[in-house]
Structures are given as structure tokens and as C-alpha cells.
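C-alpha cells for chain A. Residues wanted.
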């Protein structure tokens, strides 16, 4: 669960301000101690408050004097490089807020002129607009036209890419060689001729085997006896 964002403003209630001071001072001292221990750096903290006569020092007076002496030996440019006082901090916050306000005002003006543009497309006139409104409206119209042209170019590129892909597919499909196709009649005649040839070969083979069994084996031939037929005819 994230912490609630604290509003940076002076606390007018005395008791609440004192309680917040004690709580934040304790947390600050803890953070400085963790920073010095985890990162191995020399650090010190000196806090003045209207609630105590003497300032509170971390880690101790000698340690704070040693860190301050090292800081004073640095060049003045290095000392003030990342230093900020209350005035400069407030100036930075004001500049940041002004920049955000300027950006938000521009977005609001653009949305307002976009609504006016759609109203004009619906048939509303431009009689109530001054010169500044007309300039802003013209800028909004130009931005919309640029966006429309970008989309048109994108659609054209996509269409050209798809057409080139389809043409390459047609070429690949036409690449295999053409095979001569026979008609149904030719296929039927070819099948009939093949069937007659096979039937004739089978018939010859069968007759040859029957004659070998009936008339003899090997080179011997058994001649048929014609005497009975001759006697019968006589």
C-alpha cells in the first residue's frame, strides 16, 4: 500500500506542528545513519529548532566538525554545486508549476478548437470567432490534415506490399511444367487396348500349358489315333 502524498504547506496548529517535527527529525537522523553505514560515506546532521535550546547533532560534535572541515576545504564551486536554499527551491517549484500550467493550457485550447472544427463540419458558422480563434482553428485543421495524409500513405504502402506478395505467389504457382492431359475417350481406349492385350497373353499362356499336358512331356509327342474315326466312317 503506497503512502498518502503529503501536502507541503506550513502547519498552522502548534501541537500538530511540534509532533510532526519530532517525528520527522527522528526519521531524518535514521536516514543519515543508514546512508553513512550502507554507502560508507562521511555524513553529519545539525538540526536547530525553537523547541530546544541547543541544536541536535549527529553523530556527535567531533564527527560533525570533521565533516564540516572537509567540506570547507572543497572549492566554492563544488560546495554550491548541488546546494539549494529556500528561495531557490521555491523558484524551481514555481518554474515547474508554470511549465505544467502552460502545457495544460495548450492541450485545453487544442481540444476546444477541435470541438469548434467538428461543429463547423456539422454546419455551424464562424461568425463568433475572433482572429486568434481562427488562427488556432487553422492550426488544428492543418494538424488533422497531416495525420490524414500519414494514414493514407501508410495504407498505400500496405496495399503495394500485399499486391507484390500476391504477384509473387502467382509466379510461383505457374512455375511447375505443364503436363499434357488426355481426354476421357483416349483414356478409355487405352484401357480397353491394355485389357485386350493382357487377356490375349493370359489365353496364350493357358493354352500352351494345356497342350503340354495333353500331347506329351518334353520332346515326346502322342499322335491321335485316327483308325476309329476311319472305321466309323466306313
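Reply:
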Amino acid at each position: 500500500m503506497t503512502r498518502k502524498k503529503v501536502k507541503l504547506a506550513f502547519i498552522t496548529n502548534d501541537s500538530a506542528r511540534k509532533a510532526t517535527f519530532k517525528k520527522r527529525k527522528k526519521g531524518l537522523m535514521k536516514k543519515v545513519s543508514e546512508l553513512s553505514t550502507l554507502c560508507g560515506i562521511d555524513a553529519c546532521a545539525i538540526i536547530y529548532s525553537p523547541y530546544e535550546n541547543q541544536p541536535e547533532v549527529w553523530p556527535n560534535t567531533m564527527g560533525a566538525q570533521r565533516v564540516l572541515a572537509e567540506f570547507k576545504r572543497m572549492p566554492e564551486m563544488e560546495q554550491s554545486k548541488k546546494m539549494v536554499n529556500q528561495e531557490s527551491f521555491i523558484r524551481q517549484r514555481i518554474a515547474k508549476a508554470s511549465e505544467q500550467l502552460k502545457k495544460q493550457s495548450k492541450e485545453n485550447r487544442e481540444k476546444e478548437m477541435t470541438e469548434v472544427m467538428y461543429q463547423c463540419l456539422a454546419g455551424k458558422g464562424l461568425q463568433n470567432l475572433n482572429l486568434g480563434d481562427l488562427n488556432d482553428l487553422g492550426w488544428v485543421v492543418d494538424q488533422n490534415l497531416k495525420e490524414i495524409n500519414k494514414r493514407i500513405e501508410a495504407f498505400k504502402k500496405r496495399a503495394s506490399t500485399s499486391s507484390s506478395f500476391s504477384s509473387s505467389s502467382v509466379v510461383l504457382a505457374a512455375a511447375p511444367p505443364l503436363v499434357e492431359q488426355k481426354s476421357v475417350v483416349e483414356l478409355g481406349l487405352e484401357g480397353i487396348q491394355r485389357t485386350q492385350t493382357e487377356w490375349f497373353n493370359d489365353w496364350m499362356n493357358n493354352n500352351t500349358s494345356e497342350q503340354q499336358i495333353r500331347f506329351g512331356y518334353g520332346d515326346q509327342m502322342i499322335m491321335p489315333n485316327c483308325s476309329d474315326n476311319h472305321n466309323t466312317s466306313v
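The first strand starts at residue 45 and ends at 47. DSSP finds seven helices and two strands in the chain.
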